[in-house]
Design brief:
The protein has 15 helices and 16 strands. By secondary structure, it is α/β, with parallel strands linked by helices.
Length: 349
């Protein structure tokens, strides 16, 4: 039950490392910052390794005695490929917690190589995208002939450094959705909905969430759109993106944003995480116009991510897996998210 946890001292990696013993797991902590990895390992009583991702020979060396890598160091658009390729070369199972469409599509492109190597390659083992993926499959089972899937989430407790830095990479870029099986670019926030929640509904706008990629492979539904909650007053600014998106894409603007993020807290406080909840809503629609809806109430995203990451890791190390590219619900079913304490699933009229 030993695995390599790369990026262990990041906000989410730290949560995973701290809770691993509760699941009977022993991570080997790893990252490129010697001082931070060593201090964390001494605090938790785990072995550790220090290495970067830019040397294939060093990556191969670090994988000689492990059967699985849990990759928690983003932005994954930069870090996933070298780790995925190393896992393929060394026949080591790969799991991460990305939410980036490009990374899911990259992992899917490695499907044949992963099958040949006899390994599983599963991206999105956390809030990105376990609850939405599970809800997508649940809805697909309710309406097998659905041609459209809408997914939304709202609530939570704020962003970690890693999530915020990933968001910076996408500043000024358009949104994405799946149309007739293909991923296409659309304006950010081009569509809005109001989803049911207690004590009051949430206003949500369309965004390029990971399910634009993964839900298609899980459900085969050809048209998929994803949304997140936003304050109506803030949404008014989204429409101006077409006028100053070029500015947001400038590296000097992104550098300013990165510096401000790094000066702030690493992520939501434990108190904030404990008291927060997230609503995940979904709807499938038939070609006739008939639709069905369902909803999940879950712990906030980072709390859920640590739990689902460890649940999946334990299954992989126990041999409960499928080789090749996999999505969370595609591999472990729609009830995977129901293994998390506090999750409630409801069918809506």
């Amino acid at each position: 039950m030993t695995f390599l946890l790369y990026g262990s001292y990041g906000y989410t990696g730290r949560l995973i490392a701290e809770q691993a013993k509760e699941y009977g797991l022993t991570p080997i902590l790893a990252g490129r910052d010697d001082a931070r990895v060593k201090a964390q390992a001494e605090s938790l009583g785990y072995d550790y390794r220090v290495f970067a991702l830019d040397d294939p020979a060093e990556l191969d060396k670090q994988m000689q005695d492990v059967s699985m890598v849990f990759h928690s160091a983003g932005p994954y658009i930069y870090t996933a490929r070298p780790m995925m390729e190393a896992c393929l070369r060394n026949k080591v199972h790969y799991v991460d917690i990305t939410g980036e469409i490009e990374v899911f599509e990259m992992a899917h492109e490695f499907d044949a190589q992963a099958k040949q190597a006899g390994i599983m390659m599963l991206s999105g083992a956390g809030f990105d995208v376990v609850p939405t993926d599970c809800l997508a499959l649940y809805l697909k089972q309710m309406m097998p002939e659905a041609v459209r899937l809408d997914l939304a989430f709202a609530g939570g407790s704020g962003l970690s450094h890693g999530t915020a830095l990933t968001a910076v990479e996408n500043l000024g870029k358009p949104s994405a959705e799946r149309q007739d099986g293909k991923i296409v670019e659309v304006p950010l926030g081009a569509h809005t909905l109001t989803i049911p929640a207690d004590p009051q509904p949430y206003f949500v706008m369309s965004i390029p969430w990971g399910d634009v990629s993964t839900a298609f492979y899980t459900t085969a539904i050809p048209n998929i759109r994803t949304y997140t909650g936003i304050a109506p007053k803030s949404y008014r600014w989204v429409g101006l993106m077409k006028y100053f998106g070029w500015l947001l894409r400038a590296q000097w603007v992104k550098n300013i944003a990165r510096r401000r993020i790094k000066k702030g807290p690493a992520g939501p406080s434990e108190k904030s995480r404990i008291k927060s909840r997230t609503v995940v809503w979904g709807r499938v629609t038939h070609a006739s116009g008939q639709s069905k809806e369902a909803r999940l109430i879950t712990p906030e995203g980072y709390t859920l991510t640590a739990i689902t990451s460890l649940l999946i890791t334990k299954r992989v190390l126990a041999g409960d897996l499928k080789v090749g590219f996999q999505t969370p619900a595609g591999c472990y079913g729609a009830d995977l998210v129901m293994e998390v304490d506090g999750v409630v699933r409801e069918e809506l009229s």
